[in-house]
Inverse folding.
């Protein structure tokens, strides 16, 4: 149930002093092969952290041997010096892995991917980070996935891991993310591993397919980060050749599981909300309408108050331009937890029939009557605890 | 300092029982002429309340004699029955105004504009509303603007009025709006009056010009309502002929004043925040970037916490697509209350130099280094009181 569940991987997570709490804050995941296939999906934010710039370049050849991840600082908006810090980190990981492997086991800096998360606009404590790399490489072991998953936590309250077991091969994954959590892809770091035999092109295509309908459909607070990274490493250690669609299905299972865990642990949330749009003209239209609702603060505060205030849903739906989502506003139906409170844009069943207090999970369904496509976007309610967590200290 | 400040207008605001508090909830503003020029700007939400549908039709001939406004119910998403309620309300206003005026003073229902505000998805108490119309028409007087401004309040804590005095003529206005407050135009009701002599085309053009840079640049909580309406009535009673640009300037003054009052009274807010984008490629790009920042919950909670967390500003800027706002992300500068905390996307002056606690007003400036256009969008911080007001009861 972790990145070390598939064969051919070692990992570790150590405390390097980047987090003021003294908790684990540096993780290393190593792919021992025989393959070194790698792919990555990175933030669509135009402001990109140094590790994102580095990883895009390093993974462009479809290969990587290791990922180093740190919490305690995003290394975003830190200029050329920040980029040099990331470069130095990758070099250091490569050096200590090469030394540990001995002759014939050399790793180059270009085979080390880097992920960072934490406050934007602050330089990392590089000596502490490099010390953490030494300790983490020293501690690498074949059951280290759980320690690594803990080391990448920031405001997360639980480590997030997932596993898809197949016949003779598997996909394991870990993720962090609790705030600044919105798609493009979802704001978070994730490492997914597999022991399947796949080439770089299939790995890249399968990873993009999996993230498009999972991490990209989480929108906790509408805020897209500078550091989003999902990395896939394939070791081929199972010896099982896997087709792209099979791999994509297993990756989707793991990414969906991790996405659901991100929503469940979102900062300050008391409800997890699935907004499903049905009978849309196409999938993009369905996603656009769902996202308009998941980004409405009035909708999110109403759910916090256990109030099925469907006027706030319909008014959010109405903000999506017609060229993005063609539909007739007069035909809109809205169902909340099974009760069709809005029918043909008018009053439907009594809103008092909706029970929102019984369960953390809330299901909203919006029927556009405009086609056959559908999509679900997950979000959270907007609570006092969210405001507290995001105003009381910098993160 | 109200809609009855210009010559040729009477108004009243009465308590009709639509609000459970017993406060004033029905307002009538009458234009006694000699002109009956009118224009309106209405919500761009595709889900439109019955009074919006009515007013769009009624004002299409450029003439109106009266506006009736109610709080205590939006009459949105109420279907054909809700539209019949609005129609009936306009007819009733026309009937009682005609009866009061006597022969030769007849008013048609098509000369009565209607505005409603309150909870979506609930029918109005029509007998109470019509009773309120009787009382309001009975109470109309040339100093009634203040009472009308109070009658349109919902979660507003203060009545909002403004006046632009010119040589021999003037523009007066009132507005309500505290929640579901976002542009397209800003979510609110406003009636603006003038005794200038203007024709319908000039009135319409001047009103659109004025709202575009005022109400449309308020974004308190990102939520666009179904009921937004700004109505302009021109009586011509001053006898002063006014050119369109002169009228637009006076209207802009009044609308800007009212907009600032909306921001100052936004639900639960503790800071009013002006986000100014400078050196953009064009004005639309500047507005798009400013709006991305004003819609970031992480930015808004940081300001509530008096935390100049500029990483949340830069990351929001980075979400605007390049085709919308061309700029080089590596050149971004951000200044908060006069301190340039981010320079060329990197660390600038120490963030500790920024004082956010001293004043309710906060000024953020983002320099795109991409042209010469600029724009300011106003918003508020995201506070515990906002969450409380919007979760504790339906509105």
């Amino acid at each position: 149930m972790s990145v070390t569940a598939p064969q051919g991987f070692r990992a570790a997570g150590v405390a390097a002093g980047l987090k003021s709490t003294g908790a684990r804050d540096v993780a290393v995941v190593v792919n021992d092969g025989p393959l070194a296939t790698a792919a990555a999906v990175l933030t669509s934010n135009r402001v990109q952290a140094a590790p994102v710039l580095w990883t895009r370049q390093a993974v462009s050849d479809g290969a990587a041997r290791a990922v180093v991840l740190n919490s305690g600082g995003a290394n975003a908006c830190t200029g050329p010096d920040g980029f040099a810090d990331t470069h130095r980190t990758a070099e250091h990981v490569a050096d200590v892995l090469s030394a540990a492997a001995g002759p014939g086991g050399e790793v180059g800096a270009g085979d080390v991917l880097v992920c960072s998360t934490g406050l934007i606009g602050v330089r990392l404590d590089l000596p502490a980070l490099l010390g953490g790399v030494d300790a983490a490489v020293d501690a690498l072991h074949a059951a280290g996935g759980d320690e690594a998953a803990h080391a990448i936590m920031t405001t997360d309250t639980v480590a997030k891991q997932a596993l898809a077991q197949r016949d003779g091969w598997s996909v394991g994954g870990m993720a962090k993310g609790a705030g600044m959590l919105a798609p493009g892809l979802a704001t978070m770091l994730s490492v997914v591993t597999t022991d399947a035999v796949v080439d770089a092109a299939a790995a890249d295509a399968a990873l993009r397919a999996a993230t498009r309908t999972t991490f990209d459909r989480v929108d906790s607070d509408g805020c897209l980060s500078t550091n989003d990274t999902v990395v896939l490493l394939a070791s081929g250690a199972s010896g099982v050749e896997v087709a792209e669609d099979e791999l994509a299905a297993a990756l989707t299972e793991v990414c969906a599981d991790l996405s659901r865990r991100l929503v469940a642990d979102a900062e300050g949330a008391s409800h997890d909300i699935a907004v499903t749009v049905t009978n849309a003209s196409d999938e993009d239209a369905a996603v656009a309408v769902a996202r308009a609702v998941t980004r409405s603060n009035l909708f999110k505060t109403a759910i916090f108050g256990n109030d099925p205030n469907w006027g706030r849903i319909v008014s959010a739906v109405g903000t999506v331009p017609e060229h993005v989502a063609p539909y007739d506003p007069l035909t809109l139906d809205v169902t909340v937890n099974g009760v069709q409170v809005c029918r043909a844009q008018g009053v439907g069943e009594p809103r008092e029939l909706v029970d929102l207090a019984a369960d953390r999970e809330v299901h909203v369904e919006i029927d556009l009557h405009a086609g056959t496509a559908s999509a679900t976007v997950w979000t959270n309610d907007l609570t006092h605890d969210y405001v507290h967590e995001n105003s009381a200290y910098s993160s």
Summary: The domain at 9-264 of chain B is CATH 3.60.70.12 (L-amino peptidase D-ALA esterase/amidase). Chain B is about 30% helix and 20% strand. Chain B has a mean pLDDT of 88.
